[in-house]
Design a protein that fits this description.
Number of domains: 2
Number of strands: 9
Order of helices and strands: EHEEHEEHEEHEEH
Number of helices: 5
Largest sheet: 5 strands, antiparallel
InterPro entries: Acetalactate_synth_ssu, Acetolactate_synth/TF_NikR_C, Acetolactate_synth_ssu_C, ACT-like_dom_sf, ACT_dom, AHAS_ACT, AHAS_small-like_ACT
GO molecular function: acetolactate synthase activity; acetolactate synthase regulator activity
Distance between the termini: 30 Å
CATH class of the largest domain: Alpha Beta
CATH topology of the largest domain: Alpha-Beta Plaits
GO cellular component, one term: cytosol
Pathway: Amino-acid biosynthesis; L-isoleucine biosynthesis; L-isoleucine from 2-oxobutanoate: step 1/4; Amino-acid biosynthesis; L-valine biosynthesis; L-valine from pyruvate: step 1/4
Radius of gyration: 21 Å
Keywords: Amino-acid biosynthesis, Branched-chain amino acid biosynthesis, Transferase
Length: 207
């Protein structure tokens, strides 16, 4: 099954390599990984989607905490977080495309149905931008293919996630933000046996 982790890490060279290497050593496949600046200086936010058994989630979170550059780790699901993905799709829409000169108007109609935006219009192609759930994006791609449109390129960011409402306070507290009420996070990264978690010094040996 898919698990989504949001990790706040120090913005330093090599952090991304350490995280990717950690998953490699755990033999767990990363489905998508997005990273960028957070609301706090010198801190980046990672959204990691991986495929693993249910019992592996605790082990993954504990191992991420063992990295010295990790500030906070949280596993989220759709009921408690807003999850979105951005996708760019370039579709052939010139006179030589399967639908000929009617391609453009038909692609425009599909874009309206799926609430996508046209962000580039060229003599031979149309580029669509769509933000939403993975299933919604996959739905548009499927309809385009089943309608015999030629998809020239697809670029997807992967999932981005943020907890709803009061859940935010846990992350802000971890970063030392003033004015945030105390909350309880009972997760103990040392609760697992030693053979279930990667050693603390793991990241120090990665390039």
């Amino acid at each position: 099954m898919l698990h989504t982790f949001v990790a706040l890490v120090q913005d330093k060279p090599g952090v991304l390599t350490r995280v990717a290497s950690l998953f490699r050593r755990l033999s767990i496949n990363i489905v998508s990984l997005t990273v960028g600046e957070s609301e706090q200086p010198d801190t980046s936010r990672m959204t990691i989607v991986c495929e693993a058994h249910e019992h592996a989630a605790h082990r993954i979170r504990a191992s991420l905490y063992k990295l010295e550059t990790t500030v906070h780790v949280d596993e989220v699901n759709r009921s408690e977080a807003v999850v979105r993905e951005l996708c760019l799709i370039k579709v052939a829409a010139g006179p030589d495309s399967p639908h000929g000169l009617h391609s453009r108007s038909q692609v425009f109609e599909l874009a309206q149905v799926f609430r996508a935006r046209v962000v580039d219009l060229a003599p031979e192609s149309i580029m669509l931008e769509m933000t939403g759930s993975a299933s919604k994006i996959e739905g548009l791609i499927q309809v385009l293919r089943e309608s015999n449109y030629t998809i020239l390129e697809v670029s997807r960011t992967g999932r981005m996630a943020m907890r709803r409402g009061h859940h935010t306070s846990r992350v802000l507290k971890a970063l030392g933000t003033k004015g945030i009420p105390n909350t309880t996070d009972t997760f103990d990264p040392d609760a697992l046996p030693e053979d279930e978690v990667l050693p603390t010094e793991f990241g120090e040996h990665e390039a």
